[in-house]
Design goal:
Layout: E1 18-22, H1 26-38, E2 42-46, H2 49-54, E3 62-67, H3 75-84, E4 91-95, H4 100-108, E5 113-116, H5 121-153, H6 157-166, H7 172-179, H8 183-197, H9 202-212
Parallel strand pairs: 1-2, 1-3, 3-4, 4-5
Helix pairs in contact: 6-8, 7-8
Length: 221
């Protein structure tokens, strides 16, 4: 249980998600756009990878469906550039010239999936649905971690010390001896930590400390 931090929300409704599609074949772009829109997904199409990079990507659940063989910037080059920019939406590669080495290269580089044309409409719809689910969960987790970090940063230096030691299993008396303060003061700091972190139990606080990477860590006074 995540104390009173909002839990990850369920998979987004289709209308809240966007599929970005890149292909230099207008017929493929049109067909994929119509297919995704038919199930209620938002769609934005591009004829080249460069066009996508020039587009201000909205902060919504999304995935990318891209041909590998593109003019100027290939799908692989685009994948590398998106990674460099810190854009982590799932990428589904499609190609009419696929082979095993190409698919292995794509997957090793972090692609979500690799489909060879011609593919069944249901296959790509299923793949896109799974990619959107992964992206939605990632975004939800990032928001959760951001809120957790904000709460941790609201703690004083002494409260952070107390949290690190208490969640490592030290008793109040041991924390007091280690820091050089009274046990009563440790209890006070511990209460402040629990309140500011929005947790009701030590077990939840331990989970928070694990996520923050501070459990048992030496914290500066």
């Amino acid at each position: 249980m995540r104390a009173d931090l909002p839990a990850a929300s369920p998979v987004t409704a289709a209308g809240d998600a966007t599929v970005f599609v890149i292909d230099d074949d207008p017929l493929t772009l049109g067909a994929l756009s119509s297919l995704f829109r038919s199930v209620g997904l938002g769609v934005k199409v591009f004829a080249s990878a460069t066009e996508l990079l020039e587009y201000p990507l909205p902060a919504v659940t999304s995935c990318l469906v891209s041909d590998i063989r593109l003019p100027r910037l290939s799908g692989f080059d685009l994948q590398a550039e998106l990674g460099r920019l810190g854009i982590n939406m799932p990428i589904i590669f499609i190609t009419g010239h696929g082979d095993v080495p190409m698919s292995v290269k794509a997957m090793k580089a972090g692609a979500f999936d690799f489909l060879t044309k011609p593919f069944r409409e249901q296959d790509i719809l299923d793949t896109v649905a799974k990619a959107l689910e992964r992206d939605q969960k990632r975004r939800s987790e990032e928001r959760y971690n951001s809120r957790l970090r904000e709460r941790f940063e609201s703690l004083t230096a002494r409260e952070r010390q107390t949290m690190a030691m208490v969640t490592a299993g030290l008793l109040n008396k041991q924390v007091a001896d280690k820091i050089g303060i009274s046990e009563v003061t440790v209890k006070m700091h511990r209460g402040h930590v629990m309140r500011k972190m929005g947790t009701r139990s030590l077990a939840d606080l331990v989970l928070f400390a694990e996520k923050l990477g501070i459990r048992g860590r030496e914290m500066n006074d």
